[in-house]
Amino acid sequence: MHIPARPRQAPIVAGGLPADELAERLRQRLDLPTWPLPLHLLPPGTALVGGAVRDGLLGRLALQPDLDLVVPTGAIHLCRRLATSLGGSCVVLDRTHDIARLVLRGWTIDLARQDGAGLEDDLRRRDYTANAIALPLGGPARLVDPTGGLDDLRTARLVAVSEANLQADPLRLLRGVRLSWELGLELEVTSGEWIRRHAASLVQVAGERVLTELEKLAAVPEGHGGLIWSLEQGLLSGWGADPSASGRLRSFTPEQATACGLAPLERAWALPLARLAALLPAEALARLHSSRQLQLRSDRLRRWWERLEGRPDLEHLPESRRLELQQELEADLPALLLPLLPAAARGYLTRWRRQDDPLFHPMPPLNGDQLQRELGLAPGRQLGDLLHHLTRERAFGRIPEADPAGRAVAIDTARAWLGRRRD
Fold it and tell me: Is the dihedral of CA 148, 149, 153, 156 positive or negative?
């Protein structure tokens, strides 16, 4: 899942710097000489636009940022030529609008033909003013900002360029919510009204694109708030989002994850997974063309949350249910634990992190081949049932872990089980 960049440097946009000094500071922060793409290979009039400019101004620039370049013409042809000469690869993204992606030494560089008569025309056709700032790559450092994006960044506001621009690509509605929560920018009132007004049109967007935005939003530390806002404004109704998800999402916070004992790396994947599972049933994920794996993970989490509703821990579950839970959610247990009592969750996580814990990582003490050799069994359902029984006995401590004692007890247990089956 997508994990957003965290602020790494102080923002430079709020310092009241003159425009030319601000542009020079941004160029230094972007560290152009370290790019894998030599600037002299780019045509005159090339400009860096979008997220890298915005994030550089806000101090959120990743170590290896995705770069969006606007060129006067011939973006696809240029991309192919650069890929050949520099040893990268070219992916055509949109033939109609002349957009291609250069993948080069681990960097992603999108090249797009200028939309309109000039760079300012191109910027005026973008989604939000924060994304409509350009840094031309030739000549003295300067910023091109025809929509007032710098002032909006200085006042920590997210402002749509125009209602028509949002309508031109309805994914921009959901992107605005994500940017607001990810960047800590307050969504301007009129822009928020436009998003509400056209919320139903999000269903016109390809499911894969919607899911990508939702994954990015779910990965934002406070992204549960943005998901709740989107749900309440009707943005996700057409995609089959769970209308009752708000209550559960409100508990899927970084604070709750920390209280439950999740380590930072565990929080980074468990919180987004839990949020998506709470929001999107498996059938909604299927409509969004998610992977089958994500659909299964979401379905299992939702099913077990329902079974555990109102329970502070897992201790009330009978052995058969508890083993079933551990087998189905062995890999995703941190996400399951978020609604539980934090003290209980911390204890379970301690055991889950031990790969040799027989309940939290259940497996039989003997495999099928060993049982066939020791007991003369044939492959089939009986063997499968016996393996399940031995797994349960081991999980709840009735077969010791130590060899050879554990092996001997396991074989005796298997013989006793077979004897009962014959009686």
Answer: positive
